[in-house]
Structure formats: C-alpha cells, structure tokens
Amino acid sequence: MSTTVIDTIISNQDDESLIWIVFKKMLFFTLLMIFAPLTSYFVSKEFIFDGFFNMSDRSSYISSVIVTVVVIHVILIGFLVVAFREDKSDKKKLNKKD
C-alpha cells in the first residue's frame, strides 16, 4: 500500500498544528470571499461610478457587478496559487527527507 504526500505529512507533523494551519488559511479566504466582494461592490458603485464618473444608476450597477466578479476571480485564483504552492513545497520537503 503506497502512502500519499498528505498521509506522510500528517504522520510527520503534529496533527493539531496541521489543523490550525489549514483552518487559518480557510478562514482567511472565507472572510475574504465574504467581505471583499461586498466592499468592492459598494465602494465602486458609490464612490467611483456614481461619485467620480457620475454614471447613471443602471450603468453604475453593471460596472460595479463587473468589478465584483473580477474581485471574486482574483480571490479564487489566489486560493488556487496558495494551494498549489503549498502542495509543491510539501513534495520538496518529502523528497529532501528521502
């Protein structure tokens, strides 16, 4: 039976520290997914599109939603980058131990 990278990491590290590391990252990205899109929507609508550019209501709504969608995609890409970098660093650590 072969062991995976995750099984080896879990067996090598303290279970509680691994849980806290994962919890902190998930909490960070969860809070970011909740607050960043809401903040970007209202800030871009009220201050940028309505305030600075004096756009109509309909245009400012559409533009603010576009900004919000871009923010959500940036957060998701950031999460994926963090996840893949963590996986690569774990594999490197495993190869150094062998």
Distance from N terminus to C terminus (CA atoms, Å) equals: 18 Å
Q: What's the order of the H and E elements? A: HHH
Total helical elements: 3
Average pLDDT level: 84
Rounded to an integer in angstroms, the radius of gyration calculated over CA atoms is 20 Å
The amount of beta strand, in percent, is: under 5%
Number of beta-strand segments: 0
Shape: elongated
Mind summarizing the main beta sheet? none
- The quaternary organization reads as single chain
Low-confidence parts lasting 5 or more residues at pLDDT below 50?
none
Structural class, judged by helices and strands? mainly alpha
Percent range of helical residues: over 70%
InterPro entries: Vma21 (IPR019013)
Subcellular location: Endoplasmic reticulum membrane; Endoplasmic reticulum-Golgi intermediate compartment membrane; Cytoplasmic vesicle, COPII-coated vesicle membrane
Function: Required for the assembly of the V0 complex of the vacuolar ATPase (V-ATPase) in the endoplasmic reticulum.
Keywords: Cytoplasmic vesicle, Endoplasmic reticulum, Membrane, Transmembrane, Transmembrane helix
